[in-house]
Amino acid sequence: MAENISGLKRTCYNGGLTASDAGREVTLTGWTAKTRNLGSLIFIDLRDRTGIVQLVFDSETDPALFEKASSVRNEYVLAAKGTVRLRAPEAVNKNMATGEIEVFVSELRILNEAQTPPFHIDDKANVSEVNRLRYRYLDLRRPSLQKNILMRHKIAKTARDYFDENGFVEIETPFLTKSTPEGARDYLVPSRIHHGKFYALPQSPQLFKQLLMISGFDRYMQIVKCFRDEDLRADRQPEFTQIDLEMSFVEAEDVMNVNEGFLKRLFKETLGMDIKTPFPRIPYSEAMRRFGSDKPDVRFGLELTDISAFAADCSFAVFSNAVKEGGAVRAIAAPAGHFTRKEIDKLTEFVKTQGGSGMAWIAVNDEIRSSVSKVLTADEINEIIRLTGAVKGDLVCIVSGKSNVIYTVLGALRCELAEKLGLIDNKRFEFLWVTEFPLLEYSEEEGRYVAMHHPFTSPVPEDADKLESDPGSVRADAYDIVLNGYEIGGGSIRIHDRELQQRMFAALGFTKEAAEERFGFLLDAFKYGAPPHGGLAYGLDRLAMLICGTDNIKDTIAFPKVQNASCLMSSAPDYVEDKQLEELNISVVPLKKENESDNNE
Q1: Where in the chain is the domain with CATH 3.30.930.10?
Q2: H helix intervals, 166-222
Q3: What are the phi and psi torsion angles at 398 (to 5°)?
Q4: Where in the chain is the domain with CATH 3.30.1360.30?
Q5: CA separation for the pair 95, 54 (Å, rounded)
Q6: How do residues 45-55 score in pLDDT, each as one tens digit?
Q7: Which DSSP string do the residues of 439-489 spell out, in sequence order?
Q8: Which is it for strands 51-58 and 101-112: parallel, antiparallel or unpaired?
Q9: From the CB of residue 400, how many other CB atoms can be counted at a distance below 10 Å?
Q10: Whole-angstrom distance between the N-terminal and C-terminal Cα of the chain?
Q11: Cα(75)–Cα(114) distance, rounded to whole angstroms?
C-alpha cells in the first residue's frame, strides 16, 4: 500500500550530491533504477531527472528497514532520508556523477509500487521505437531523453532572456485563425456557432506578427506552436514549435546581426562553445551551383563541378542531348574512396532513389575504369578527370538531366558519400546564411508561379520592376540560417507597401477580388501606415535536435507523432461520438473502396 510523503519533503535533487556533501542529512525522492541485495547490505539506485544516487541499507543497523528495502523493485517510487557519506576508495564508481558518495538510509517510504515495465528503462536497452512511443511516459524516464528535454528548456529560456534583453516583447497570437492559400495543407477546426465555417490552425503567426509591426510593437518574439498537415519525415512533425520574431525599421543585415548574436549566446550557454561571427553569406544560386542544396553542409568539400560545356560536344549522346535540351551535366569527385564495383552499384541505386535516371562514373586508379568507357574516348574521359580535379583513388560520379533534378540528386549524393567516407566531423558546428532566393518558382502542376517562401516576402529593391515582366528572375530579400546541412531558421524582409503587395498577389495568380477576400484585413492595415519590417523563425525542435547531438527530432519532443501523424500513446486521432458531430452539423462520408464507381447504380 502506498505511503504518505507528509513530513518527509525532498531537500535536494539526487544528481547534485558531491563529496563536499559528506556528513549532510538529506531527503531524496525518485524512482528505483536498480536494486542489489548482497545478503547483509542492500543497494538501491534512486533516479530523478538530475541523475542517480546510491542508497545503502544495513541489516545489522535496522533489520525492519532492511526488510522493507528488500521488498523494493525497479520503478518503485521512493522517499528516503539519510546521511551522505564517502564511498570506500575501492567502491568509487568513476562512471557515475555521484560515484564518490552514497546515502546511508535511516528512513524509507514506498510512495508507490510499480508493475514490471514493458522494457528496461535504460539508455543501453534495445527497444523498438513503436514501444518507446506507446509507453512514452516510461521512455521519458531514460536519462538521455530527460537530458534532451532539459536542454530544450534551456534553449527556450536562453531565447526568452536574449530577446528580452534586446528589446523584444513576447506577444501571443491566435490559434484559431482563417485558412489562407499558399503553403502546406491547413489543419481545419469546424465552428459550432458559425455553421459551415472553419477555423484553421496556424502554419505560422506570419500575418499576425506583421500586424503587430503595424500596431507599433517594433520588436516581437514568441515561442509558438504551428501546424502543417503534410507528409512527415525524420526532422518534421505535424505540430512543431517556432522561436518566432519580427522587427520594424530594419534591413536584412539588421535581422541577421541580431540572430547571430542569439546563436552565439545560445551555443555558449548550452554547449560552452564559442562560435565565430559573422557567419558566411552565400547567395542561393552559388549554394546550388557548389553544393546542389539550399541548405548545404559545409563541414566537408565534395563540391559539384559543372561539365556541361564539355558535355555539349562530347560523343556520349546522353550527355550532349541533356545540354541541348536545356539541362546540364554535373559531377562530384569523391576522394580516395577505392570503391568496389558493388559499392558503386549501390551509389547508382541511391541516385535513382533521389529521382535520377542513373549515374555515370569514372574510377581513377593506375588503370582507369569507367561505366562510359565504351561511349566516350580516352581523351574525353581524361578531360572529365581534369575538369573535376580528380586524382588517383578518386571516384568521379556524373549525373545528367534537368538542372533541378541534378541538384537534388547530387546534393543528396554528396552527403551520402561524405557519410560513407567518414568526412563529417560531428563535433563541428558550421553556420552560414543562404540569401537571395528566387522570389517565385513556377509550378507545372498548378500552371502558375508560387511563392518560394510566402506571399509577403519582399523582392530585393532592384528586382521589383521585373515582377510583371520577368517574375522568374526576381530575387527575394530572404535569408535562411543553415547549420550542418539543416535549415534551422528562415526569414525575410516583408512587403509593407499595399501596392507592391497587390502586385505580388497578381504575380501569384490572385485576382484583386480573391486577394481582398483572403487577405483583405492585411491590405486594409497597410492603409494606416506600415513600417518597413522583417523577421525570422527558428524551428525549435530541429535546433534542439542538433544541439542535443541526435539525428531524430522525436528525441527532443516530449510527446511526438509518428510517420502517419498519429500518437501511439494516446491513440490520437480517434473517432468522436455522433452527438459531437451533430452539434457541429458534420457527417462523416465513408471512404470509397479502391475500385468503387462514383455512380452508385
Answers
A1: 146-282+431-556
A2: 206-214
A3: -125, 135
A4: 300-420
A5: 13
A6: 999 999 999 99
A7: SEEEETTTTEEEESS-TTBPBPGGGGGGTTT-GGGPBBSEEEEEETTEEEE
A8: parallel
A9: 27
A10: 65
A11: 6
Query: How deeply is 387 buried, as exposed, middle or buried, from its count of CB atoms within 10 A (0-12, 13-18, 19+)?
Result: middle
Task: Give the per-residue pLDDT at 600.
Answer: 44
Residue whose C-alpha cell reads 540528386 in the numeric block: 409
573-598 mean pLDDT: 82
Q: Report yes or no: 105 and 65 within 8 Å, Cβ to Cβ.
A: yes
∠ CA 317-318-324, nearest 5°, is 80
| For residue 174, cis peptide bond before it (omega within 30 degrees of 0) | no
Q: What are phi and psi of 118, to 5 degrees?
A: -65, -15
Q: Which of 206, 202, 235, 184 is nearest to 541 (CA)?
A: 235
Most confident of 279-288, 358-367, 436-445: 279-288
CATH class for the domain made up of 300-420: alpha beta
Proportion of the chain in helix, strand, coil states, percent, rounded to 5: 30, 25, 45
- Looking at domain 14-112, its CATH class is mainly beta
Element (H, E) at 199: strand 198-200
Alpha helices in 355-394 (DSSP H): 378-388
What pLDDT, in 10s, does the model give residues 71-88?
999 999 999 999 999 999
User: Cα–chain-centroid distance for residue 543?
Assistant: 6
| CB within 8 Å of 224: residues ≥ 6 apart | 172, 173, 202, 205, 241, 242, 244
Q: Is 141 left (phi over 0), alpha (psi -120 to 50) or beta?
A: alpha
CB of 479 closer than 8 Å to CB of 436: no
In 3D space, the residue among 65, 59, 61, 48 whose CA is nearest the CA of residue 109 turns out to be: 65
Q: In DSSP terms, which residues pair with 306 in a beta bridge?
A: 330
* Structural contact between residues 391 and 364, judged by C-beta atoms closer than 8 angstroms: yes
Task: Enumerate long-range contacts of 441-447, CB under 8 Å, 24 or more apart.
Answer: 441/472, 442/472, 446/509
**CB within 8 Å of 398: residues ≥ 6 apart:** 307, 319, 329, 330, 331, 359, 360, 361, 362, 372, 384
Q: How far apart are CA 488 and CA 433, in angstroms?
A: 10
Look at residues 88, 79, 90, 87 and name the one whose alpha carbon lies nearest to residue 21. 87
User: What gap in Å lies between CA 301 and CA 280, rounded to an integer?
Assistant: 16
Q: CB–CB of 31/137 below 8 Å?
A: no
Q: Which segment of 298-302, 487-491, 502-506 scores lowest on mean pLDDT?
A: 502-506
Task: Give the residue with greater pLDDT, 160 vs 520.
Answer: 160
Asked whether 233 and 251 are in contact (CB, 8 A), the reply is no
Of all residues in the chain, the percent with pLDDT exceeding 70 is 97
Q: Phi, psi (5° rounding) for residue 198?
A: -135, 145
Helix (H, G, I), strand (E, B) or coil at 189: strand
Q: Return the pLDDT at 453.
A: 87
The answer to whether the beta carbons of residues 12 and 26 sit under 8 Å apart is yes
Fold of the CATH domain 146-282+431-556: BirA Bifunctional Protein; domain 2 (3.30.930)
Separation CA 218–CA 532 (nearest Å) = 10
